[in-house]
Structure formats: structure tokens, C-alpha cells
């Protein structure tokens, strides 16, 4: 008989799975390892999720706050074909849509150039800092899952870089930002700075050297000082 849902236990399992998939990738992650990290026996985890595919789906359902009280009884069944990628795509659209960058692209001229750029960089930094555990799962597992590779690396991420590049080119064209030799490279520099300090430094040996708030403020100030045209 199917058991009633225990959201707190599923959330605990999802957190353990997020760490495992984000560190090991899809193929190298084993149900038994996730079970142990979640404080379950190797067999007990199957009373919550039927398969590794289901466990992987649970990571994103949990990350994007879709674990509702009305969820199906346990164990959770495998997702339909394409369902996990659809959840990821929609979840990123809702939580990483960069509304400030989109608004700036639609605006002819900013009232305050430095404030506009600072807000855009902080928006990107905050998104990465908030979502980095699930982004790690996506990036590490995409090599094993072609549909995820197509959605994230060949469409989603290039589109986000292209939007930032268009913004930098647009503001450089009006003289509000410094003109860089290549706007795409400049956009990538901004993205890599926010990604390293908001995410990748957490896996670095020197992770605890930097205060979170100071890291964010320094990245924002650095980008603004480098790009905003002096009065």
C-alpha cells in the first residue's frame, strides 16, 4: 500500500541527492550513497523514490518549490519522458529570468548608469548565489544527459550571455559604458566573476577566506569601476 507523503523526509533526501549529483554527475551517483547521506538504508530509499531517474527529478521539484502537500503518495514514480528537463527549464525561467537586465535592454538611457549596471550585476550574482547547488547538478549531469545538455549549454546559458553582451554593446554605443574590444568577452568576464565568487569559490580550498557580503560588493564595485565611463 502506498504511504502518505512526508515532505520533510523527501526534502532531506532531495538535499542529499543534490549534493551527490552536483559532485559526482548522473552516472557516478548511486542510490545507496544518497540513502546513506540521507540517513537511510540502501533499501529504504526505494520506499520514497522508485529509481535514480525519480531521485534526479526530485532534486529539481524540491529546488523549485514544487513539493506540494498534494504530491502523490510514496514511493514517487519516475517522471514522464522530457518532464524533468521541462521542470528545469520552467524553474530557471521563473527564478533566473534576469528582469532587470531585460528592462535595461528595453530602455533607451539610464537615469543613473552606475546604479543600473550595479543592479544588473547584483541580480546575476544573487541568482547564482541562491541557485548554485542546483546549477552544479545541471552542469555536472548534462554530459550524461543529452537533452539537458541541449537545453542548458546550447540554448539557455548562451542566450543569457548574449543578452548581457547586447546590453554592454548598447550602453557602450551611447558612451555610457566603456567600449571593450569584444563585448562577448566582456560579458563572459562579468559572468565568470559572479560565478566564481557566488558559486565556485565554495568548492575551493580558500572558500572561507572571503566574506560573502564583501565578495558580492567587491565584484559589483570592480565591474562598475571597470566599465562605467567617468563623468
What does this structure look like?
The chain has 231 residues and is mainly alpha-helical. It has two domains: 7-79, Homeodomain-like (Arc Repressor Mutant, subunit A), CATH 1.10.10; 85-227, Tetracycline Repressor, domain 2 (Orthogonal Bundle), CATH 1.10.357. It has nine helices and no strands. It has helices spanning 7-24, 31-37, 52-63, 83-95, 99-106, 113-141, 146-173, 183-198, 212-227. α7 crosses α8. The longest helix has 29 residues, at 113-141.
Q: Tell me the number of strands.
A: 0
| Secondary structure tally, helices | 9
Q: Characterize the largest beta sheet: strand count, sense, and whether it forms a barrel.
A: none
* H/E element sequence: HHHHHHHHH
Classify the fold: give the CATH topology of the largest domain: Tetracycline Repressor, domain 2
Q: What's the mean pLDDT score?
A: 93
Helix fraction by DSSP (H/I, runs of at least 4): 55-70%
Please give a handful of descriptors for the protein shown.
9 helices, Tetracycline Repressor, domain 2, mainly alpha, Arc Repressor Mutant, subunit A, 0% strand, 231 residues
Quick synopsis:
Helices cover 64% and strands 0% of the residues. The chain contains 9 helices and no strands.
Q: What is the topological layout?
A:
Elements: H1 7-24, H2 31-37, H3 52-63, H4 83-95, H5 99-106, H6 113-141, H7 146-173, H8 183-198, H9 212-227
Helix pairs in contact: 1-2, 1-3, 1-6, 3-4, 5-7, 6-8, 6-9, 7-8, 8-9
Amino acid at each position: 500500500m502506498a504511504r502518505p507523503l512526508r515532505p520533510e523526509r523527501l526534502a532531506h533526501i532531495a538535499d542529499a541527492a543534490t549534493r551527490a549529483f552536483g559532485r559526482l554527475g548522473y552516472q557516478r551517483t548511486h542510490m545507496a550513497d544518497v540513502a546513506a547521506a540521507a540517513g537511510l538504508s540502501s533499501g529504504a530509499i526505494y520506499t520514497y523514490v522508485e529509481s535514480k531517474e525519480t531521485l534526479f527529478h526530485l532534486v529539481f521539484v524540491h529546488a523549485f518549490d514544487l513539493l506540494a502537500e498534494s504530491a502523490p503518495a510514496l514511493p514517487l514514480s519516475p517522471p514522464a519522458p522530457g518532464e524533468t528537463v521541462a521542470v528545469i527549464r520552467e524553474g530557471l525561467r521563473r527564478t533566473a529570468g534576469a528582469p532587470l537586465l531585460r528592462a535595461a535592454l528595453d530602455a533607451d538611457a539610464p537615469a543613473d548608469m552606475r546604479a543600473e549596471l550595479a543592479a544588473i550585476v547584483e541580480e546575476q550574482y544573487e541568482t547564482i548565489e541562491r541557485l548554485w547547488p542546483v546549477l552544479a547538478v545541471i552542469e555536472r549531469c548534462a554530459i550524461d544527459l543529452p537533452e539537458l545538455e541541449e537545453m542548458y549549454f546550447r540554448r539557455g546559458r548562451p542566450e543569457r550571455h548574449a543578452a548581457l553582451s547586447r546590453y554592454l554593446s548598447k550602453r557602450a554605443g551611447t558612451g555610457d559604458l566603456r567600449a571593450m574590444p569584444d563585448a562577448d568577452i566582456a560579458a563572459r568576464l562579468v559572468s565568470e566573476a559572479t560565478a566564481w565568487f557566488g558559486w565556485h569559490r565554495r568548492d575551493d580550498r580558500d572558500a572561507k577566506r572571503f566574506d560573502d557580503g564583501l565578495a558580492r560588493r567587491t565584484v559589483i564595485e570592480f565591474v562598475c569601476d571597470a566599465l562605467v565611463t567617468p563623468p
